[in-house]
Amino acid sequence: MVRLGLAAFFSRHVSITRVMFDCRDGGIPLDSRSQQLICPICQKRKAKRFCPAKTQSICSVCCGTEREVSIDCPSDCPHLVASRQPDYERQDIDPSKLPFPDFKIASSFVRARNDLLLKISYTICLHARDNSALVDSDVITALQSLAEAYRTLASGIVYQNPPVYRLQRELYQAVQTSIERHKQEERRKVMVAHPDAVGNGDIRDALVILTRLGAARSNGRPKSRAYLDFLRTRFEPGEFSKPGSGLLLLA
């Protein structure tokens, strides 16, 4: 039996390891790496970008074109996060094509009713945390239906037309419940009629603002959660990753 010296042994061991594995590819055997390089979506281009939704690498072209279309991207995907602001800046937003185009709301409303806007936004984000299938279009539909309900209610007419689709209807109900609780809390604070008390007209305006904001912030893709991700930035990081969290606004 021939015994190798230590230097020769390690030299030979390293060369064998390099043949079997490439540590830069996470220890993928070279004989199977040729199969890993082809994008599983297009079956044409090289897969160079890891996709957390697919739990495998895909090509950058499919990442860009199938993102939130056929791929249900998690909100913490670094490629998705990096695309948010450029996507928004590329949009040519026509205010006349947003929901409630003729609705006029005073610029001072957001500051005056910030608590109400935050309450509704928090409820939406909390509901989305517990219902992972919820997407921007569901949120916009639910908000628009609620805005219409409070629009008629502000004029003295009781009318409701909740969405038919279950996810949208459940969000509609969750936001409505949260709003009514907020109204009760406000009433307890003032105890008597007060000019600053939240009324149905204020709720209508808040819902109109959030509906229009959602239509502007969403990128229009079937699985888009750009608006939901935007709403989450109004709160502390990790606020919706655990149950029973409190309302905390970033300064």
Folded structure, characterized:
The protein has 251 residues and is mostly helical. It has 2 domains: 33-97, no CATH class; 99-232, no CATH class. It contains 10 helices and 4 strands, in the order αββαββαααααααα. The protein has helices spanning 6-20, 30-36, 60-66, 78-90, 109-112, 114-130, 136-154, 166-190, 200-217, 226-232; strands at 21-22, 28-29, 49-51, 56-58. The strands form 2 sheets. The chain has a two-stranded antiparallel ribbon. The longest helix has 25 residues, at 166-190. 28% of the residues are buried.
In summary, what is this structure?
The protein is mostly helical and 251 residues long. The chain is 53% helix and 4% strand. Strands 1-2 form a two-stranded antiparallel ribbon. A two-stranded antiparallel sheet has the order 3-4.
Number of helices: 10
Portion in strands: under 5%
The helix/strand order is HEEHEEHHHHHHHH
Count of the domains: 2
User: What's the alpha carbon Rg, rounded to whole Å?
Assistant: 26 Å
Q: What composes the largest sheet?
A: 2 strands, antiparallel
User: Helix- and strand-based class?
Assistant: mainly alpha
Features:
single chain; two-stranded antiparallel ribbon; 2 domains; 251 residues; mainly alpha; disordered N terminus; two-stranded antiparallel sheet; 4 strands
Topology:
Elements: H1 6-20, E1 21-22, E2 28-29, H2 30-36, E3 49-51, E4 56-58, H3 60-66, H4 78-90, H5 109-112, H6 114-130, H7 136-154, H8 166-190, H9 200-217, H10 226-232
Antiparallel strand pairs: 1-2, 3-4
Helix pairs in contact: 6-8, 6-9, 7-8, 7-9, 9-10
